[in-house]
Amino acid sequence: MKKAMIPLGIFLVLVVFLAIGLTRDPREVPSPLINKAAPAFTTTRLQAADQPFSAKDMLGQVWLLNTWASWCVACRQEHPVLMEFAKTKTLPIVGLDYKDKETDGLKWLARFGNPYDITVTDKDGRIGIDYGVYGVPESFLIDKAGVIRYKQIGPVTEEALRDKIIPLVRELQK
Amino acid sequence: MIPEIGHFALILALFVALALGLLGVIGGQQGRDDWMALARPGAQALWLLTAFSFGCLTYAFYTNDFSVSYVAQHSNSKLPGLYRVAGVWGGHEGSLLLWHFMLTSWMLAVSIFSRQLPDAMVSRVLGLLGLVAVGFLLFMLITSNPFLRLSDVPTDGRDLNPLLQDPGLVFHPPMLYMGYVGFAVPFAFSIAALLNGRLDAAWARWSRPWATAAWIFLTLGIALGSWWAYYELGWGGWWFWDPVENASFLPWLVGTALMHSLAVTEKRGLFRNWTIVLAITAFSLSLLGTFLVRSGVLTSVHAFASDPKRGVFILLFLSVVVGGSLTLFAMRASKVRSGGSFALVSRETFLLVNNVLLTTAAASVLLGTLYPLIVDALNLGKLSVGPPYFNSVFAPIMVPVLLFMVVGSFARWKSDSATELAKRLSPVGIASVVLGSTAPLLAGAWSALAALGLTLAFWIVLASLLQIYQQLRNTVNWKSTPISYWGMHLAHVGIAVCVVGITMVKGYETEKDVRMVIGDTVSVGGYTFRLTGIRTEAGPNYHADVGDVELIREDRVLRTLHPEKRIYFSSTMPMTEAAIDTSLVRDVYVSLGERLEDGKNPAWAMRVYHKPFITWIWGGCLLMALGGAMAALDRRYRKKAASFAATPVKNGALV
């Protein structure tokens, strides 16, 4: 009898999760990093492995850190939006190629286009851990003083750019 | 008028399904002949009404009736006729109607091919399927009515999603749904047997051909979907571990385990509880897949419009069906006695081990699929789980499955000797390792993974051949070997073929992304591609840039390939139509990317791939399905109930 209850038990737990899942908008989650200093990191550039990049290099400008990976399906969705946004030259966009093979990342950029002013690598995902990246894509808007002011979970959409990101950038750039 | 009649037929169908469900199940339980007699005609009437309703929607599509909201959203007057018909299942509401139509088609099949079953069993099974149909009809009528009219009739429709405008749409969804829904039949048999309290060999024997039939359709459906994604998406990939793909793969894994478990239950009376759980799980996963795809709780490339009301309904339905079944199981399981025992080394053990492994594989794929949702529900954030997880978890589980698969067909029922088995199989093992580890050298570069994959494939093929040889030597008349025996080996060889395809593609595919102007050449995998021209063409509902690419090998032009880039009028997103030259041992694949530079001599991004043995992946699936068909068509399943008990267990054949 007891053993025969196991499948039912597992199923009930599953239903609870599915029910909670239904009430969620899977994209809207606040980050504890908002209004905290962006974690410092130094890494190499994707296109030029001999040129180091440090988050400190960006001090004094408002910039967007966008995590992506060649294996990430949602990034493909986000990509055209970023391409368009990059053309407006609103702010520098730094791409963080997360847990990816360098050759795959380069191929991806060659294939779909490169919206990034600078692309850097995070091969083992350590920078991602510091930034609390659960999954790609995620983007961080960082101000002149190096403080994270906004986090976009999931693909950057046209609405998010229009309603949240661009107005905030304008304000921060003042 | 026609859409209203279709809508009305669906409402009538709901009442027929309700009556069938109540009278069928209660009649079967209480042994009321007059009620049980209604089961078969009831199922047939339900099919007729559904088919009629389906016909009405197809008619609305074909005649461009844009006053029907669903047609207006998924069709267009410029859409070619073929897609105006297949477009019926190009969106949510029509997909559900197709789902329901498939369910009633299975019911029709049960009502026809069940002459040898006791009436009470048929009545319960059809009744239970009728109750499932009630759920789907309510879902359609309450939340997703395909016949809703628009008060403001648009002059033209919004057009079918360009990604779906491909012959793949005609075959892939019906096959896949047929497989999905088909697991409702073994599910209903299991619940009927639980209600009855008689989980005997007869029950297993009745369920087997149905489980196999559903599995065949699911295999074909998944293979078609994978092939479609391969040539349509233009990335050259054939499996993405997308949530929707996983939703179809999960019932396949559990269904595979179910087929084998049913074999043991029928032959030896063992694993009865296990078989029941697998039958319930296979169908539950089909329903769960529907929930995941239709409720929008997960993000996927198959991004369907989602509506929380629909999600709530399916979740309730899922809870009632699966929760009810598992509760019934929990109440009845202790009464199920297992017959007989078996030794540690026996066919039963190998089947059990592989079943546990397949179930584990399914559980880990399920975990990966639901993980983003679970993490979100626990307020830990949002993430996406990618192929790195699935590949690293799934492949190691499959290695022992492939290894034990053929050992199971060698081992005797009940008890076998380990030394004897090792003696018989060691030459095959040595030959496989030698062949498997030298074959990658022929392909150019040796790698451990390629050697492992090919060794496993040789192991399956050689061991199956040896088994067939021994079987033929031991039987006087080869015709006495049942067709299902051949089916089993064919399906196993199909797995090996599939493994060869996956191994070769993973290990030896080459691809290049290049910028090309007219006259440029690029070489990949020993082939040279020369871009000789790019012209524009007009399709019925799109404009296309069509490339002329000469495929050259050793200075000889083999043929000209025509990759296309289409812009459909209804969408701004360009669609890639790759051009593929297929042969038995390789595909070469060209797809046209973006135009990089305009001007006199425009430059284009091109992608070229050389994919060795990729068609073997789908060829293997075809062999598996064919093997399954041979197993399901075995004469034994058509025998009268009375002669069951006397059939002896044949030595050496898992049939």
Could you describe the 3D structure shown?
- With 174 residues, chain A is α/β, with parallel strands linked by helices.
- Chain A has one domain: Glutaredoxin.
- Helices cover 40% and strands 20% of the residues of chain A.
- Chain A has five helices and seven strands.
- In chain A, the strands form two sheets. Chain A has a five-stranded mixed sheet. In chain A, strands 1-2 form a two-stranded antiparallel sheet.
- In chain A, helix 2 links the parallel strand 3 and strand 4.
- The longest helix of chain A has 22 residues.
- Chain A is globular and about 65 Å long.
- The N and C termini of chain A lie far apart (69 Å).
- The model of chain A has no long low-confidence stretch (mean pLDDT 85).
- In chain B, a hairpin with a 5-residue loop joins strand 9 and strand 10.
- In chain B, the strands form two sheets. In chain B, strands 2, 3, 4, 5, 6 and 7 form a six-stranded antiparallel sheet that branches. In chain B, strands 1-10-9-8 form a four-stranded antiparallel sheet.
- With 655 residues, chain B is α+β, with helices and mostly antiparallel strands.
- Among the domains of chain B are: 160 residues, Four Helix Bundle (Hemerythrin (Met), subunit A); 104 residues.
- The longest helix of chain B has 32 residues.
- In chain B, 61% of the residues lie in helices and 12% in strands.
- At the A-B interface, helix 1 and helix 3 of A face helix 12, helix 13 and helix 14 of B.
Question: Low-confidence parts of chain A, pLDDT < 50 over ≥5 residues?
Answer: none
Q: H/E order of the elements of chain B? A: HHHHHHHHHHHHHHHHHHEEEEEEEEEEH
Question: C-alpha Rg of chain A, in Å?
Answer: 19 Å
Principal-axis shape of chain B equals: globular
What is the level-2 CATH architecture name of the domain at 1-160 in chain B? Up-down Bundle
- Number of alpha- plus pi-helical segments of chain A: 5
Count of distinct structural domains of chain A: 1
Main sheet properties of chain B = 6 strands, antiparallel
CATH topology of chain A: Glutaredoxin
Helix content of chain B: 55-70%
What share of the residues of chain B does DSSP label as strand, in percent?
Answer: 5-15%
User: Structural class per helix/strand content of chain B?
Assistant: alpha+beta
